[in-house]
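Most newcomers find our protein records easier to grasp once they have seen one. There is nothing in a record beyond a sequence line and a structure line. Getting from the letters to the tokens is the skill we practise here. An example says more than a description, so a record of this kind follows:
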Amino acid sequence: MATTGASRVAQLVCYLLFRLLLPCVLLVGAVVRYNAVSFLYTVFLLLCPLMPAPTSVTIRGCTGLYLRFVFGLGLLASLAHGVFHITLKAMATDSKPYGSMFTNCSTYEQLVRQIGLERLDTAPTVDIFRLVIPDVAVFVTALIVYIVCWKLLPVEAGQCQSELPTVVRSQLKRKVISVVEFIGEAMLVLLLAASGIIAPSVLSSVYFLSFLFLATLWSMYGNLGRKFAVFRVFLLVFNTCHILVLHLYQFQFFQQVISPTDFIARLLGLIAVVKTDCSSPYQIFFYDTSKWQNFINPGILLILFYTLAVEIRHHCEDKTLVLSHQPDAARTQKTRRHRQRKRGSEREVPRTLDESQKEHLVGAEIRDYSSLEPINDTMDREGSPTMLGEEAGTKNSEGNQEQDEGPKRSAWVTFFVYVMRQSYVLSLIAMMVWSILFHSWLTFVLLLSACIIWMFSNSRRICYVLSPFILFYGIGLLCIQFVFGMDLQKELPIESYGIQLGDIGLRKYPHPCKELAIQVAFTLCFWLTLRQYVREKRDSVLADGEKYPLETVGGTAPTTPNSRKSFTEMI
């Protein structure tokens, strides 16, 4: 027990060092100055969440190789600073003093500065630390993390490469996988919305349209199936390229090629956060401090990247875990089918639930309201990591004793169900508030529609039937506001044929992200209403099927939709 406790403490220490300390140091090294070395730090920062956590196996494999590359880069950058300044000092003469060949903003000076080397004879002490210390910090931190993990995680005798990650992942899956999936998908959708509206542009429109697509798909009870994993990979690749392009655009060279005021830069969303002053190139100057959203945008993109990377890494680990237990799962399914044939019925008998199964069903209940991926029935039937090692097939025969007992909803899920059933009220209120906050002829349609719906006695039914049209009208208003929120003040007109476009609803705002965020919140009510309408319509179809079941030929028991209904469909 003492050895197991010490091993867990060692794994926790290594995990915190690798997942928390190292990324923070790499982030500092990437943002305090902008050159080729800091660009490489950004690349390693983006690779960090994709790497497996340090274990006795991975520290001697891909994770250890990653750490060696990081502290090797920090070492080379630190040595380059020393060699560069020693060379300048050795070449200095009375006629050509220290650094005279690297005058400010000359061709050679810009070249070496973009690489990561600068003359420091006139630089203040603070700037010297900002330019030199990050390389030393990255080298020391990566070296410490590597040595500590190597020493604390020795190779155990007879340990297989896949054993430790499989066991740890199986234990975590029984406890927190449902909540993690719910939080992960919710964060992904919210971060897509934030990344899209924080600085409207062509590049950010990918996040905005992805958010609208996923939210609308969710409201219609649709799913992408296995394509959702591919979709996340696409978002990860695009987000990575976006972050790297924004980092490169902070270089003086790229800002000279494409000025931040050019139409192409404003259209694509190439945001200049810092600029270079040739009178003091060693200092850092901000381009436009009045646009605070430009400083928040890279941070939101980085959080979105980490969310996508963690979800994709966990998805790959889950897939590996299921494949490793496929033989046991097949045996479990074979045993279950044999017992069903022995009872002479294809109907599944309710079974007694142990604690881990209750947690799994609660997770399924959450996913019924939140998931963009379908519940993996194959995994559930064949023995998911939640059921592995617990003899799931044996528990099926114990269900006759407690057929009427089922898992209860948690309080917060009950509250969420109540809000969903009353979502039409929120939608009507949102339509009126939207038209009041944003006066225009386009929003007047929402106000008029809400007032007309309120006048009917069966306003709930009418609101549900009209919810698809209300939703797509709101999405159209969002898209219009997104286009007019781009940094195209000169190109987008204010007046056309004597008509003020702002009166129609085509209005520009100094900080469009705030208006877009409010309108997205209103549209959320429309998504909830449409989802509840689709849910009730689906339940009514299932109820009709239960009322008039189809009898099968051959004496077997009738199979009704209710007999196949999962727990999540009975909410």
Remarks:
- The chain has 20 helices and four strands.
- Confidence is low (pLDDT under 50) at residues 160-169, 344-367, 375-406, 552-571.
- The CA atoms of residues 169 and 317 lie 8 Å apart.
